[in-house]
């Protein structure tokens, strides 16, 4: 419906609608609520459910900026939501209960992964930052650590509590900027200390 909102005084309406369903019964799918978060998600790894809490990694400001004279900088967030029921109407909804925003202004998310009570996201403009985010308190997601390394990761795979494997692109230039689209880079990250993530090896 993007064209319908063209020129809307409330902005570009850049948002993601989320609908949840209970599929525990193989013979019946049950709708359990809907909600909305600002920005757009990258792929299926940008959304997760854990112990009844929905976690979403989004980037705002990606769309519509190409024809704006002075667009707001892109910025990313991790948002948490829970199911709520209106006692008067019985309406089911997803309501935001926590958020960490303002992540990597001017950059967008290139990969994301939720693993239990942690979230990992990679943003990129010139140098690839890996962000480690604590989502154990769903009402107060917190950035634990950040690491800037050349290249960019487009897929994140948790190997263990202490290590991440990522797949992506190597830097194009000796100063670590740009991307070399002609090959694939695999990286191993040591996150044993989530406040100080380190790149252990690359191939």
Q: Overview of this structure, please?
A:
The chain has 203 residues and is an all-beta fold. Helices cover 0% and strands 56% of the residues. The chain is built from no helices and 14 strands. It has strands spanning 15-22, 30-38, 47-50, 53-60, 75-85, 92-103, 108-115, 118-124, 128-134, 142-149, 152-158, 163-170, 180-190, 198-202. The chain has a four-stranded antiparallel sheet with strand order 3-4-5-6, with no helix packed on it.
Indicate the mean pLDDT.
Answer: 89
Please state how the strands of the largest beta sheet are arranged side by side: 3-4-5-6
Biggest sheet character: 4 strands, antiparallel
SSE string, helices as H and strands as E: EEEEEEEEEEEEEE
Low-confidence stretches: 1-9
SS field, number of helical segments: 0
- Rg for CA atoms: 18 Å
Features:
203 residues; mainly beta; four-stranded antiparallel β-sheet; 14 strands; 0% helix
């Amino acid at each position: 419906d993007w064209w319908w909102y063209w020129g809307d005084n409330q902005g570009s309406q850049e948002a993601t609608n989320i609908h949840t369903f209970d599929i525990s019964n193989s013979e019946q799918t049950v709708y359990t609520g809907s909600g909305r978060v600002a920005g757009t998600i990258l792929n299926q790894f940008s959304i997760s459910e854990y112990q009844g809490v929905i976690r979403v990694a989004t980037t705002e400001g990606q769309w519509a900026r190409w024809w704006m004279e002075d667009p707001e900088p892109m910025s990313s967030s991790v948002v948490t939501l829970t199911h709520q029921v209106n006692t008067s109407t019985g309406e089911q909804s997803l309501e935001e209960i926590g958020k960490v925003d303002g992540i990597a202004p001017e950059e967008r998310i290139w990969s994301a992964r939720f693993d239990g009570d942690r979230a990992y996201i990679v943003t990129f403009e010139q140098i690839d930052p890996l962000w480690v985010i604590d989502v154990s308190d769903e009402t107060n997601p917190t950035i634990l650590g950040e690491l800037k390394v050349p290249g960019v990761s487009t897929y994140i795979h948790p190997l263990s509590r202490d290590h991440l494997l990522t797949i992506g692109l190597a830097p194009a230039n000796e100063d670590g900027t740009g991307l070399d689209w002609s090959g694939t880079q695999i990286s191993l990250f040591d996150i044993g200390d989530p406040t100080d993530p380190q790149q252990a090896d690359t191939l």
